Structures are given as C-alpha cells and as structure tokens.
Amino acid sequence: MSRYVLTFFTPPPSLAVIKRALFATGAGQYPNYAECCFVTPGTGSFRPTQGAHPTIGTVGAVEQVDELRVEVVCKGDVIKAAVAALKESHPYEEVAYYVTKLEDF
C-alpha cells in the first residue's frame, strides 16, 4: 500500500485540535504504534494581499509568527481524509501544507 507524509504548519495553540482531527482519520499509524507525528518549531513569514482575511496579521503588512512544522505519515487510503481534516480543523484561511509520496525499498 502507498504511504505519504503530510507536512503542514500551524500556530502552536492549534496543534492539539488538528492532531485529534488527523488521528481520527487513521493518520499517524505504524505497526504497533498510533498517533505518531514529528513537530519542529520555526518562524513563518507572509504578507496578506488584497482580498485576504488573515487570522493573524494585516493585509499589506509582512508578518512573522511562531509556528510548528508537523509531519504525519498516512497510508494511501487515509491521505485524502487527512488533508480534508487538516483543512477543516486549521485556523488559517489558507493552510500551508504539502504531501510527499514515500517510496518502498
């Protein structure tokens, strides 16, 4: 079965809610382990443009905010539901995420 890594960025206070939503889809599963993820702190930088409704910041102004980079492994039958759960539970208007397919060796 195919496996993927879902990587996303979130403000720290939102992490617990997002993890619950992701893990409810079956994301973060390994043999004999559940609810697995890796979290790294960092700084996000962005400038909301005209038409944006930012959760943090002001249209036209560059913002730098503390964020967490989170990586979660997902099986192929779970990845679409995990992305949908991420988008539903995340506080940002535009969720920064990407999906990487893993190769089996």
Automatic annotation (TrEMBL):
<protein>
    <recommendedName>
        <fullName>ATP phosphoribosyltransferase</fullName>
    </recommendedName>
</protein>
<dbReference type="InterPro" id="IPR036069">
    <property type="entry name" value="DUF34/NIF3_sf"/>
</dbReference>
<dbReference type="InterPro" id="IPR015867">
    <property type="entry name" value="N-reg_PII/ATP_PRibTrfase_C"/>
</dbReference>
